[in-house]
């Protein structure tokens, strides 16, 4: 077994008696918990004293058969038939079989009338458009029975395999429960996954039915969902029918019969359905591995093991009860969706959401609006909330929230502190397990303290230990489970001899489950996670399968071999306790074919193809070209050795490698050590200047080498990076380079020429040639950023060969005063435009705020007698006061209700500060209405350089004071994002009112920022091309 001692991972607990808990439950809550009730039940059944949780845990793993028998009796009652004995046949984890004489029905237990009253809420499905669907337990049970009866009439039987590509909503839950109620097996995926990924998962199962959402949603990206479903159906020859879950339609290429879910529900007869019970170990769900070694493995989970493990985790570890309303942010592609589904068996109302996280506060708003009591999230979302400066405890009414769960990645100490300080004091439970066991190895506990950075306890009944080199260790070791447990998978589908199953979990330690995580245990029984130890990569809380990355790279001809590994980068922290604060980066090591080089174009293609064909999570942070990758003697690439080299760690056994000499080249590669690299001097020659600039670029982008002719924007550059780059160049060379010059000289060689030949302008130009061409030019006006750099992908996507000029904000570099009025900007820009096009007809386009300036330029040119052939506004919003009075009143009423809820929930001591904060905001709004700068800039601009922050604030003033007037020079082409920006409301009524010569509206999926990136930028470019062609 390879040993991994990550930096900071060797922390020893030592004497922990003086540690301060992050949270401790009150004695009253402990007395009232279900864990306390079950412990008392277990004492009565066994005569064991069980004085504390440590004793309970030790008993549960030592006498695991007694523990599970008593738990089934306590939790299930009479919801099963047959005999609970024998509890378990066999003592080794790999081959043990639980409850072979027991029968049950998973869906029947979840919806049992005895768990909670018939009119108790069971499900609230929240949609991205704000609508809600609510079902009681009786209503949900009836729908499931009706659909199950209808599916039975279609011939669906016990043991059949069913798959679903589903959004997280009512239809997905009803479908899954109906399928499992018949004893069939369900496997699910999400519509946002690529067809290749879904096909690789579903094809081996030879499914009989496919459930799918087919209607397009505003936030969908890429190919239409219906097209993907049609392609998938064609790739599943075993498929006998498709069940359409919504009102969408499928292409005529789908040859299988298509049934509408609504019609099946109408035709089903709930009274005629019999809730048959099946064997405890009959297959329930087939989940999928991440694709570490190729195509994903199909992991078969039994109904009984899944059910009782979830019941134990929900009732004992999370204390879920009919009083609770739980929301876990998940999709149908993740096992936490199945985990939350099972919470119905505890009488919990589950909340689902099928939309995007369109703003950082989306989930907090949902939690508040739905009065969620238990919120499941991830470290990535908590970090995003922290970085955005959110204050959930003052912004939202979180009075109902009593607990939070976090999974998907390591939850660091500082994040516990953030939750306590900015959300509320509550038990924040770090839970971890995975798809492999459809449950958790470590998780929360209502009766013991929470310590920052640690999971509260190990899962009852599972003998979880830290092992190193085949035995227990007091330090960091592999997470193993020594004893049998019911939720162990039945095996891999199609793995008839069990060899693949054995190799995945038991080859390292025979008879002992080896999970692939690194952990350490404290004397109190808490667990600290240290990340993954196997080939699965955890990127910002998402498990990424290298096999899927390799499959995409296989189609890029320049790439010969590849390995992708995680790099753990430590960050210095002022808090000495926060020793585990590290960042995970995805590093892609490439061996290129002869004649190929890692230039900007190839790096951009790798990133683009991975994002399109796999997902954005598969895009690496670093792409590095090397001469060779480590190989074992049998010719296999060694991810473990490459991982150690990337992290600067010794490799445990270099004798096992055919070419250990390649490790030093990886370990010392400059792209992995850019922060420590000393920049070469500016020098006295053009070549020395280029070498200096090259080092600056490589440090900025975190990749090397970068060629002298690689394009800044092709490498992923944007305006903020450009400002950082030019600030460093100014410091090293003394030369002030206007930001706009990067569009004229976007390569190292061209930038060096401008500096060397002293060809830099004395001030920042307002008019910048973006692209050469022929014919009447297109003038593209800057957004609130002051630059047009963010729209370069749009320009590159145009088929029109017209020249394109960009108009950038005056004062972008801070060398001139910025303009505060849209009218003044327009007048200034017209002067610049006339230097390249003295007379009309003019073509104008503006993205976001730039659309307001483009509109005003067109107005002023029209008054000057000029002809306007194209006015193209890309998702341009207006100030709230331009909207109809009814819309303004609705918005103000909603704002007042939100503030009233916040005030009522605030402690008295915090009320003055909150009121002062609100008055400051109102005063700033009044200042901006009269054309003055706000005293308090918007919070999100805090990370920007001062000049850029000032520009954004001036645009904020300009937008507030500008009032569009009727316009009749030409029709306005208005391209809007399907997802509105909540902060501004819908601007379309205003544009309809002022567009006297007509308004052409086109809607593109996604939100505001999605319009100028792939794939949506192609649709926007096509609309702009049509406008330019017609003009």
TrEMBL record:
Q: Name one GO molecular function term.
A: ATP binding
Q: In the UniProt record, does the keyword Phosphoprotein occur?
A: yes
Known SUPFAM superfamilies for this protein?
Answer: Acetyl-CoA synthetase-like (SSF56801), ACP-like (SSF47336), alpha/beta-Hydrolases (SSF53474)
Q: Which GO terms describe its biological process?
A: lipid metabolic process
Q: Which UniProt keywords apply?
A: ATP-binding, Ligase, Nucleotide-binding, Phosphopantetheine, Phosphoprotein
**Enzyme class per UniProt:** ligase
Q: Which domain of life is it from?
A: Bacteria
Q: What is its EC number?
A: 6.2.1.1
Q: Spell out the family assignment given in the record's similarity comment.
A: Belongs to the ATP-dependent AMP-binding enzyme family.
Name under which the protein is recorded: Acetyl-coenzyme A synthetase
Q: Which organism is it from?
A: Paraburkholderia phenoliruptrix
Primary gene name: acs_1
């Amino acid at each position: 077994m390879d040993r991994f001692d990550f930096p900071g991972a060797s922390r020893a607990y030592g004497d922990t008696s003086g540690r301060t808990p992050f949270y401790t439950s009150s004695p009253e809550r402990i007395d009232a918990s279900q864990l306390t009730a079950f412990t008392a039940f277990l004492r009565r059944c066994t005569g064991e004293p069980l004085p504390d949780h440590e004793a309970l845990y030790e008993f549960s793993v030592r006498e695991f058969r007694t523990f599970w028998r008593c738990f089934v009796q306590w939790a299930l009652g009479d919801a099963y038939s047959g005999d609970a004995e024998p509890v378990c046949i066999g003592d080794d984890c790999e081959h043990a079989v639980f409850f072979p004489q027991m029968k049950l029905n998973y869906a029947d237990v979840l919806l049992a009338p005895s768990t909670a009253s018939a009119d108790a809420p069971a499900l609230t499905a929240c949609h991205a458009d704000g609508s809600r669907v609510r079902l009681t337990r009786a209503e949900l049970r009836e729908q499931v029975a009706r659909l199950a009866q209808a599916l039975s009439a279609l011939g669906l039987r016990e043991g059949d395999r069913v798959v679903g590509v589903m959004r997280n909503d009512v239809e997905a839950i009803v479908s899954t429960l109906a399928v499992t109620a018949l004893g069939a097996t369900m496997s699910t995926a999400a519509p946002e996954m690529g067809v290749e990924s879904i096909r690789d998962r579903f094809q081996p199962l030879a499914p009989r039915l496919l459930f799918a959402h087919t209607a397009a949603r505003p936030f969908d990206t890429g190919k239409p969902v219906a097209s993907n479903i049609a392609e998938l159906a064609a790739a599943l020859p075993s498929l006998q029918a498709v069940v359409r879950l919504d009102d969408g339609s499928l292409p005529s290429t789908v040859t299988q019969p298509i049934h509408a879910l609504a019609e099946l529900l109408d035709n089903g007869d709930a009274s005629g359905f019999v809730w048959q019970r099946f064997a405890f170990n009959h297959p329930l769900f087939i989940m999928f591995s991440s694709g570490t070694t190729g195509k994903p493995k199909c992991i078969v989970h039994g109904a009984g093991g899944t059910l009782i493990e979830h019941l134990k985790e929900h009732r004992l570890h999370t204390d879920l009860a009919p009083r609770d309303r739980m929301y876990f942010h998940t999709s149908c592609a993740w096992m936490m969706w199945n985990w939350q589904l099972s919470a119905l068996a505890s009488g919990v109302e589950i909340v689902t959401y099928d939309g995007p996280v369109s703003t950082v506060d989306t989930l907090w708003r949902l939690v508040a609006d739905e009065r969620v009591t238990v919120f499941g999230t991830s470290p990535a979302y908590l970090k995003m909330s922290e970085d955005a400066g959110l204050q959930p405890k003052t912004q939202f009414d979180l009075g109902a929230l009593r607990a939070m769960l976090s999974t998907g990645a390591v939850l660091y100490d500082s994040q516990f502190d953030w939750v306590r300080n900015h959300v509320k004091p509550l038990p924040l439970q770090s839970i971890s397990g995975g798809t492999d066991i459809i449950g958790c190895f470590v998780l929360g506990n209502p009766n013991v303290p929470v310590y920052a950075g640690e999971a509260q306890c190990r899962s009852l009944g599972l003998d979880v230990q830290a092992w190193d080199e085949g035995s227990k260790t007091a330090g960091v070791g592999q997470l193993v489970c020594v004893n049998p447990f019911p939720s162990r998978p039945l095996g891999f589908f199609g793995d008839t001899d069990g060899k693949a199953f054995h190799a995945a979990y038991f080859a390292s330690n025979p008879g002992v489950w080896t999970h692939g995580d690194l952990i350490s245990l404290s004397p109190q029984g808490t667990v600290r996670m240290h990340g993954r130890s196997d080939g699965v990569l955890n990127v910002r809380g998402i498990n990424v399968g290298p096999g899927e990355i390799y499959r995409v790279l296989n189609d890029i001809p320049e790439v010969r071999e590849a390995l992708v590994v995680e790099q753990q980068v430590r960050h210095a922290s002022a808090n000495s306790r926060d020793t585990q604060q590290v960042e995970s980066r995805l590093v892609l090591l490439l061996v290129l074919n002869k004649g190929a080089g890692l230039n900007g174009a190839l790096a951009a293609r790798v990133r683009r193809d991975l994002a399109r064909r796999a997902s954005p999570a598969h895009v690496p942070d670093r792409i590095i070209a090397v001469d060779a990758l480590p190989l074992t003697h049998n010719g296999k690439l060694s991810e473990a050795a490459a991982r150690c080299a990337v992290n600067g760690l010794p490799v445990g056994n270099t004798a096992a490698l055919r070419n250990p000499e390649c490790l030093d080249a990886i370990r010392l590669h400059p792209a992995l050590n850019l922060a420590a690299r000393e920049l070469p001097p500016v020098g006295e020659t053009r070549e020395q200047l280029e070498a200096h600039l090259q080092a600056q670029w490589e440090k900025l982008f975190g990749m090397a080498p970068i060629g002298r002719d690689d394009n800044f924007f092709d490498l992923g550059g944007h305006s903020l990076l450009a400002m950082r780059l030019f600030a460093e160049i100014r410091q090293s060379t003394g030369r002030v380079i206007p930001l706009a010059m990067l569009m004229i000289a976007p390569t190292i060689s061209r930038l060096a020429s401008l500096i060397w030949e002293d060809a830099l302008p004395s001030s920042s130009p307002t008019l910048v040639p973006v692209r050469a061409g022929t014919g009447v030019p297109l003038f593209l006006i800057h957004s609130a950023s002051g630059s047009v750099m963010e729209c370069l992908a749009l320009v590159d996507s145009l088929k029109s060969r017209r020249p394109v000029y960009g108009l950038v904000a005056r004062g972008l570099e801070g060398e001139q005063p910025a303009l505060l009025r849209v009218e003044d900007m327009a007048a200034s820009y017209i002067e610049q435009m006339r230097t390249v096009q003295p007379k009309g007809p003019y073509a104008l386009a503006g993205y976001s705020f730039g659309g307001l300036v483009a509109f005003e330029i067109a107005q002023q040119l029209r008054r000057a007698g000029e002809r306007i052939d194209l006015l193209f506004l890309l998702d341009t919003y207006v100030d709230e006061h331009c909207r109809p009075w009814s819309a303004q009143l609705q918005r103000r009423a909603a704002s007042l209700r939100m503030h009233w809820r916040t005030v009522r929930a605030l402690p008295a001591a915090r009320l003055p500060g909150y009121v002062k904060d609100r008055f400051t905001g109102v005063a700033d709004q009044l200042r901006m209405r009269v054309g003055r700068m706000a005293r308090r800039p918007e919070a999100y601009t805090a990370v920007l350089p001062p000049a850029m922050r000032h520009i954004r604030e001036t645009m904020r003033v300009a937008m507030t004071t500008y009032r569009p007037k009727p316009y009749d020079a030409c029709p306005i082409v208005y391209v809007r994002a399907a997802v509105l920006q909540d902060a501004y409301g819908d601007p379309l009524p205003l544009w309809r009112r002022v567009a006297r010569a007509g308004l052409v509206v086109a809607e593109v999926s996604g939100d505001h920022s999605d319009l100028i990136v792939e794939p949506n930028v192609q649709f926007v470019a096509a609309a702009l091309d049509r406008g330019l062609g017609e003009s």
